[in-house]
Amino acid sequence: MNLCDLAVESIAGLQPYVPGKPIEELQRQYGVRDVIKLASNESPIGPSQAAQAAIALATRDLTRYPDGNGYSLKLALSEKFQVDAKQITLGNGSNDVLELIARCFASPADEVMFAQHAFAVYSLVAQAIGAKLVEVPAKNYGHDLPAMQQAINANTKLIFIANPNNPTGTYIPAQEVHAFLQAVPDNVIVVLDEAYVEYGDQNINSVDWLAEFPNLIICRTFSKAYGLAGLRVGFALSSPEIADLLNRLRQPFNVNHLAMCAAIAALGDEDYLQRAKQVNNEGMQQYIDGFNAMGLNYIPSKANFICVDVKTNAAEIYEKLLQQGVIVRPVAGYGLPNHLRISIGLAKENQRCLEALANSLSES
């Protein structure tokens, strides 16, 4: 008997999410000691000193379960975003919240919509519950909101929008998102995934839209600009009614004590956030200049990564970069077989990556 036959059909057919290659794996694979990882959109500057100090203090309480309600973190978030604590759902990273949303609102009778080249987790969580996947073709590597609006029908239950988008880095102007929300029926849940929003230069706060659109859920994370990817803490902001439903599904201790303490400290460290944005802006320009010098096209990005067209099979270039100790991310699985997604690192890491890329391209 094949034990896979015992699984729910929608689960048995899943292809698992493949994260960026760990540094240790590359060291084992090629024996390369000096490795830089620019594959997972992590902060290159490390966690803030405030977060590290909070973690050190919190280790005294490791024999206790974390606060299952996350009271202190919710209080900090409610003050930061001027929302009621009852509008907040905490997650073990924002991926956890995305799965909660899908499980809460979609069923095999429903359609879940997302854009071509959008974050792979949207299709994974929808497929896991057996919902029908509706992928709307991209426009200029990003979301085509008018086309998505046209694709809405009586079976549409859930729409995922990443802004900025991963892996392409494209950004939808706020007024276009707002117009889309106005056009979406009230019985369709719209998830605005803003994992990279801190890196942009946007002045409009989407959180203000929650009062206008009860069917809106905003997801954010501490894994990117706040530099806490290893602790896994994210959150959703929504109407109290939606948050209540999500919190019924949420595991009671899904965010650990160290993560919550570090997140509270990071949230209040504005100097760290500004430094992270500055390093990202300078690194982004470094890559743009490098790509222009090599005659490579790239997708303009508002995130902490950039997608570049290497004009050939990107998998081959990816392997050549690995052999030089540089880990980036091939995105053929997103329908971009000639592109590599490169996370913004420190200046010396970016320069090494550009040099390795030039070497790899010259050999191909």
From TrEMBL:
Keywords: Amino-acid biosynthesis, Aminotransferase, Histidine biosynthesis, Pyridoxal phosphate, Transferase
Quaternary structure and partners: Homodimer.
Taxonomic classification: Bacteria, Pseudomonadati, Pseudomonadota, Gammaproteobacteria, Thiotrichales
Highest taxon of source: Bacteria
Recorded catalytic activity of this chain's protein: L-histidinol phosphate + 2-oxoglutarate = 3-(imidazol-4-yl)-2-oxopropyl phosphate + L-glutamate
InterPro entries: Aminotrans_II_pyridoxalP_BS, Aminotransferase_I/II_large, HisP_aminotrans, HistidinolP_aminotransfase, PyrdxlP-dep_Trfase, PyrdxlP-dep_Trfase_major, PyrdxlP-dep_Trfase_small
Cross-referenced HAMAP family: HisC_aminotrans_2 (MF_01023)
Enzyme class: transferase
Cofactor: pyridoxal 5'-phosphate
Protein name as annotated: Histidinol-phosphate aminotransferase
Pathway the protein acts in: Amino-acid biosynthesis; L-histidine biosynthesis; L-histidine from 5-phospho-alpha-D-ribose 1-diphosphate: step 7/9
Residues bearing PTM N6-(pyridoxal phosphate)lysine: 224
Pfam families with a match to the protein in the record: Aminotran_1_2
EC annotation from Swiss-Prot or TrEMBL: 2.6.1.9
One example of a Gene Ontology biological process annotation: L-histidine biosynthetic process
Source species of the chain: Methylophaga muralis
